[in-house]
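tool_call: predict_structure(chain=1)
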Amino acid sequence: MSIFGLLTFTNLNGVMAQQAAKDKAATEATEQVEATTDSVAPAAEPEMEEVAATPQDDTKSFHQVLKEKYIQGGAGWMTPVLLCLIFGLALVIERILYLNMATTNVNKLLEGIEENVKKGNYEGAKELCRNTRGPVASIFYQGLDRVNEGLDNVEKAVTSYGGVQMARLESNLTWISLFIAIAPSFGFLGTVVGMVQAFDAIEVAGDISPTVVAGGMKVALLTTIFGLIVAIILQIFYNYILTKIESLVNQMEDGSITFMDILVKNKK
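tool_result:
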């Protein structure tokens, strides 16, 4: 019995020792997992910040978007449209500068002419016209230069030179209207070519899926859009130039009538 009790006690101690070792190993494993979790968790936050910051990095400027669309539309069709815009704007700027320089204070000029004519100082009136810029002053100068030939010749000179000045005001408008017309024409031509490319792709693939026709349709739409935008921009400036010319022509006509009245009143 003593021997049996001793063996039982020894086995019990061994089992308890093994159980304690298992509990200790489990505790250490749990602590290691928690430590690992704590070390991994903070590292996940920068990744989330990077992911959140990614959409901001993908934001493109208007210039970049315009450049991409230009390339997608095809340089062969977008370049003529771009050239229409460049040349058209160059002519528009030239016309606007010319018309602004041609603007004259007609009433002030007529007052100066009338003062000199009343004194019989026609040379002074001519000098005043020479020193004044604009088509109206040029017309008055031509009339004063022929005042010794009679009022009929003065009127003919004013009328004839008025037509010359009007033609100068309308110079280059034909080219601007040409660019307004051909810019969308190039766009429509690119549209037709893009549609043909789309149908060729359908014929080759034997399928009408969006991916097959997307390339040709993109060329078609982009060239049309850019062509219409160019035409709209040039048309707005063209109408502004026409309005400016109309205003100058009205000044020329009204000023010419008043000019002839001044000469008639102070006829030699």
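agent: The longest helix spans residues 2-57. Proceeding to next step.
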